[in-house]
């Protein structure tokens, strides 16, 4: 799975592209889109066209973008929101699902604390993606939001596997369905290893339930 991360900005918009295979992440590309000076509509078009070009070049499966934080200056917040809107339009026009994460969520996912400094984000992004050097701040934030989305997908998969455990209280056909789903999950490289272990445990328990029921029926027949 290829994930495109966007760090929106009116002057400079960062982008980062990573490949997710199971729980492993690999760096593909990163950079910035500079809107230059001039009238606002023209600058927004530069952002829209730039993000669209990145999406067309790397063909991501999904995208993630950083949310706008409320600035002390309302005008700056408004301009940032417009730049972000241009980037989102470019992503949606390419048919990409777009996830949104706050700066705090990004820092928590990458560094482990929502109060991390930009330098810490740069350092951890470089470590997580095995980069030879530190990326620029805008590119680092874009890669960070892509990493944040990758971690979020892992958590969704694990949560889904955990919900499968509830099927154990259901009927025999439900447990049979669980085994069929588990067979597909076991061969899916995108599903994290932790989620696969959870599903394996669920199917083992389902098998134990069916075997126990069979023994009880046999016991009644013998009696």
TrEMBL record:
GO molecular function, one term: DNA binding
Chain sites annotated for binding Mg(2+) 1: 7, 138
Swiss-Prot/TrEMBL cofactor(s): Mg(2+)
UniProt EC number: 3.1.21.10
Binding site for Mg(2+) 2: 66
Catalytic activity, as annotated: Endonucleolytic cleavage at a junction such as a reciprocal single-stranded crossover between two homologous DNA duplexes (Holliday junction)
Top-rank lineage group of the source organism: Bacteria
Record's GO cellular component terms: cytoplasm; Holliday junction resolvase complex
PROSITE patterns (alphabetical): RUVC (PS01321)
Main location per the UniProt record: cytoplasm
Record's subcellular location: Cytoplasm
GO process terms (BP): DNA recombination; DNA repair
Cofactor binding note: Binds 2 Mg(2+) ion per subunit.
Keywords for the protein's UniProt record, in alphabetical order: Cytoplasm, DNA damage, DNA recombination, DNA repair, DNA-binding, Endonuclease, Hydrolase, Magnesium, Metal-binding, Nuclease
Broadest EC class assigned to this enzyme: hydrolase
Pfam family, one: RuvC
NCBIfam families referenced in this protein's UniProt entry, alphabetically: ruvC
Family: Belongs to the RuvC family.
Subunit field text: Homodimer which binds Holliday junction (HJ) DNA. The HJ becomes 2-fold symmetrical on binding to RuvC with unstacked arms; it has a different conformation from HJ DNA in complex with RuvA. In the full resolvosome a probable DNA-RuvA(4)-RuvB(12)-RuvC(2) complex forms which resolves the HJ.
Role according to the record: The RuvA-RuvB-RuvC complex processes Holliday junction (HJ) DNA during genetic recombination and DNA repair. Endonuclease that resolves HJ intermediates. Cleaves cruciform DNA by making single-stranded nicks across the HJ at symmetrical positions within the homologous arms, yielding a 5'-phosphate and a 3'-hydroxyl group; requires a central core of homology in the junction. The consensus cleavage sequence is 5'-(A/T)TT(C/G)-3'. Cleavage occurs on the 3'-side of the TT dinucleotide at the point of strand exchange.
Name the record gives this protein: Crossover junction endodeoxyribonuclease RuvC
Organism: Pseudoduganella rivuli
């Amino acid at each position: 799975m290829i994930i495109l991360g966007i760090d929106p900005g009116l002057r400079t918009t960062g982008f980062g592209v990573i490949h997710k295979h199971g729980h492993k992440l690999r760096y593909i590309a990163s950079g910035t889109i500079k809107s230059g000076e001039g009238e606002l509509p023209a600058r927004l078009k530069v952002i829209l066209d730039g993000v669209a070009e990145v999406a067309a070049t790397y063909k991501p499966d999904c995208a993630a973008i950083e949310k706008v934080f409320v600035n002390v200056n309302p005008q700056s917040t408004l301009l940032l929101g417009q730049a972000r809107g241009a980037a989102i339009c470019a992503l949606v026009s390419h048919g990409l699902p777009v996830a949104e994460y706050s700066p705090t969520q990004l820092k928590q996912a990458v560094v482990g604390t929502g109060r991390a400094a930009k330098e810490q984000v740069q350092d951890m992004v470089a470590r997580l993606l095995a980069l030879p050097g530190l990326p620029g701040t805008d590119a680092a934030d874009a890669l960070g939001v892509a990493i944040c989305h990758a971690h979020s997908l892992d958590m969704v998969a694990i949560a889904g596997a955990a919900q499968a455990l509830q099927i154990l209280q259901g009927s025999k056909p439900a447990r049979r369905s669980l085994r069929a789903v588990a067979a597909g999950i076991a061969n899916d490289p995108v599903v994290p290893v932790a989620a696969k272990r959870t599903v394996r445990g669920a199917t083992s328990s389902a098998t134990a339930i069916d075997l126990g029921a069979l023994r009880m029926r046999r016991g009644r027949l013998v009696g």
